[in-house]
Amino acid sequence: MAKSALSFVCQNCGAAYNRWQGKCESCGEWNTLAEEDTTGATSMPVSVRSRRKGRTFALESLAGKSQDAPRLPSGMAELDRVTGGGFVRGSVLLVGGDPGIGKSTLLTQTTSLLARAGHRAVYISGEEAIAQVRLRAERLGLADAPVQLASETSVEDIVSTLSEGSVPRLIVIDSIQTMWTDTVESAPGTVTQVRASAQALIRFAKKSGAAIILVGHVTKDGQIAGPRVVEHMVDAVLSFEGEGSQQFRILRAVKNRFGPTDEIGVFEMTGLGLREVTNPSELFLSERDLGTPGTAVFAGIEGTRPVLVELQALVAATSLGTPRRAVVGWDPSRLSMVLAVLEAHCGVKLSGHDVYLNVAGGLRIHEPAADLAAAAALVSSLTNAPLPTDAVYFGEISLSGVVRPVAQTSARLKEAAKLGFGRAVLPESARGEVGSDAGLTLNAVGGLTTLVAEIAARGLKGNRESATSEKNATPARFRRQEG
Ligand SMILES: Nc1ncnc2c1ncn2[C@@H]1O[C@H](COP(=O)(O)OP(=O)(O)O)[C@@H](O)[C@H]1O
Ligand SMILES: [Mg+2]
Ligand SMILES: [Zn+2]
């Protein structure tokens, strides 16, 4: 018999140690080590491992008859955008997200759509009883879809059952943390179990050609084994995100062997389930506080799609020795850089101010093109000068304070014009790129100094006159919302 191998496994990243320690050296988390029996995880029982002669197998040529379509579109365009065009045969996809964000809802809808289209789609819930899953399906109006449903947690039972009959096109396992396999002794939910169960399911997917979606909960306290260990094993990792208080949900690919990782899918949570949002800009701009200082609309690009979103800044005097810098939805080091450039080149003193920056709607921006919009929002808040409500901003700021061009100028402008914006503040060099048929007034800025001066001048003018002249510059669709 194999000697039982006890070791301490980090429940966050899966690193193993032979003695307990407070901090995991691999991922840096504290108090995540738990004692686990890893006998079966790292080695097979000696009886199986005995020096058996290898089985011979047939070698194939590169060319060959491929089976029917390797990709299966889900019927939800926003989901397909993120996966790269549908579920790949024999692939395994991990969908992670906070509890309650809507993972089970999304996957119930997906399996139902596929089942209605005549594909064999299986939904295995390890968390909910059949009755609960049925209740959800009923609420979503999907109870009639011929999905094959089970409430099971044994991986061996699941694999045996699904090996019979035609190969399922899609199998949802909700969630991987509830699964367990006989091959290891650890309790369900531990890293060793999660890893071994995922391994067995991945093996089944590759062998049978079924696409499998594993659901994984993300917990910040590290109590339940994080799906982090599974991330390296699967073909794609999608993260389902959203602000608890808001209805938007954003699906993002964190890793994708078969497609892009920069596309986002946008959904809205409704009583009837997740509704696809084909024009995210409209959603992100639907709750604008028009005419308030400190807000600027950024014309961004997410993957292949232009997305307009509001950046909100608050700059407030502080008596603290070290002023606060807090940012939600954007890179904090990018904010530090913009603040440093404002201070060094534009004479904007912010060292005595707390600075907060927020991207509205729970979106996370990765583009440096947001620099100009962030700077505009910051200066607007500092000088208490509202920016024109019909303007969008984009451009990268260099350390020398020059506003640099960014990609896809015309796509950004087209989206802004479509949503009723009247002008764009953009890099000098971008103006030549689009010519005169942009559909908006182009306000090119060569350096950040120019922008700061313009905003400051608006602040002085605004304090002298009233805000009435501003109303005339507001596009019709925003005017009615102004109080
Ligand atoms: N009766 C209901 N009516 C409307 N929305 C509901 C109802 N029950 C649950 N929801 C929504 O569904 C969400 C839970 O979705 P679910 O798919 O179970 O999340 P997850 O699987 O990610 O934990 C809730 O946060 C809520 O927004
Ligand atoms: Mg769920
Ligand atoms: Zn760790």
Structural write-up:
By secondary structure, this protein is α/β, with parallel strands linked by helices. 30% of the residues lie in helices and 24% in strands. The protein contains 16 helices and 23 strands. The protein has helices at residues 39-42, 46-49, 77-83, 103-116, 130-139, 155-162, 191-208, 228-231, 280-284, 332-346, 371-383, 409-418, 428-434, 448-464, 468-472, 476-479, and strands spanning 6-10, 16-17, 33-37, 71-72, 87-88, 92-97, 121-125, 148-150, 170-174, 211-217, 236-241, 248-256, 264-270, 273-276, 295-302, 305-317, 325-328, 353-359, 391-393, 396-397, 403-404, 423-427, 441-445. The chain has a nine-stranded mixed beta sheet with strand order 8-7-9-10-6-11-12-13-14. A seven-stranded mixed beta sheet has the order 17-18-16-15-19-22-23. α11 (371-383) packs parallel to α14 (448-464). The longest helix is centred in the middle third of the chain and has 18 residues, at 191-208. The radius of gyration is 27 Å and the shape is globular. The protein starts with 5 loop residues before the first strand and ends with a helix. Residues 42-46 and 466-483 have low confidence and may be disordered. Magnesium ion (MG) binds at residues 103-104, 127, 174.
